[in-house]
Amino acid sequence: MVVASDMHRYDMKAKARDAADVFEHLERKSFPTATDSLKLSSPAIRVWRLRTDSSHSALAHYSRILAPDELDRAGRFRFEHARHSFLVTRCALRSLLGNYLQADPVEIEFCYGKNGKPVLPPETPIQFNVAHSDGIALLAFAFECELGVDVERIRSFSGMAGVAARFFHPDEAARVNSVPLEERERTFFSTWVRKEAYLKATGEGLGAGLQDFQIKSVAAFADFRLERLGQLDGSWTFHDLPLAPDYAGALAYRGDARDVQISHPLTFAELENLLAARSLG
């Protein structure tokens, strides 16, 4: 999520609109079958969409599934909706990792990088990343592939030009300011999530030199490429993710393009039922 105080100064209690309205417009590029969704094979990347605003069934699982440090972190969230979103996302993360690793979700242990990025122990080949924003969470999984994911609800806020100038590469800030007003918010947040997905993949965090690189569209490659100090870096791949019209999401990962499959949006209860059916099968 965006953590710049400039952007969180406004509308901290804002929620996504009613879930039925938000998600009925989703482009359904989903997993082919429920069975496929619960398998993870190289070089595929699985991205799960979770509706955290309607996942109250997860409440009973917080104290059972999550570790004390996760519950402690949840308790430090200032707003209830942010705390709830974090808890639901962590429960889903543990449940999905338990499925992929064939392990008890409670027994999964996380290691943390210097900027707090959670990872599995080095001997475990699965890598993952999560993000959540105003009612939706994204959880991405792959074998032996550095990856990051980010999501933001698209909204208006004062001082957008100043935030772009402070956190974006000069070319990115110029693009945000040059598009028509009706496209500016989407351009800003699409730019933001691509950059943050990359920083989450590398584990650098927002303390990295955000103005020193940009994620730009390159016609010769028909997609986005990382550019640092004027030099294109083809070792990273970027995808914009199909979400509801008022959300921007992005996936970044090291290496050539992979098969990326994204689930249809699920509540935590629906995810639980899917996992239960798998275990019974």
Description:
The strands form 4 sheets. The protein has a 4-stranded mixed sheet with strand order 4-5-1-12, with helices on one face. The chain has a 3-stranded antiparallel sheet with strand order 6-11-10. It starts with a helix and ends with a helix. The longest helix is centred in the N-terminal third of the chain and has 22 residues, at 80-101. It folds into 2 domains: 28-145 and 259-281, 4'-phosphopantetheinyl transferase domain (Ribosomal Protein L22, Chain A, Alpha-Beta Complex), CATH 3.90.470.20; 148-257, Alpha-Beta Complex (Ribosomal Protein L22, Chain A). Helices cover 35% and strands 23% of the residues. The chain is α+β, with helices and mostly antiparallel strands and 281 residues long. It has 10 helices and 12 strands.
Present the secondary structure layout.
Blueprint: H1 5-8, H2 19-23, H3 34-37, E1 45-51, H4 62-65, H5 68-75, H6 80-101, E2 111-112, E3 118-119, E4 126-133, E5 136-143, E6 147-153, H7 160-167, H8 170-178, H9 181-202, E7 213-218, E8 223-228, E9 231-233, E10 236-240, E11 247-254, E12 260-262, H10 268-280
Helix pairs in contact: 5-6, 6-10, 7-8, 8-9
- Find the structural class using helix and strand composition: alpha+beta
Q: CATH topology of the largest domain, what is it called?
A: Ribosomal Protein L22, Chain A
Order of helices and strands: HHHEHHHEEEEEHHHEEEEEEH
Query: Which word captures the global form?
Result: globular
Quantity of strands, as a count: 12
CATH level-four homologous superfamily name of the largest domain: 4'-phosphopantetheinyl transferase domain
Q: Average pLDDT, to the nearest integer?
A: 84
CATH architecture of the largest domain: Alpha-Beta Complex
Q: List unreliable stretches of 5+ residues.
A: 1-29
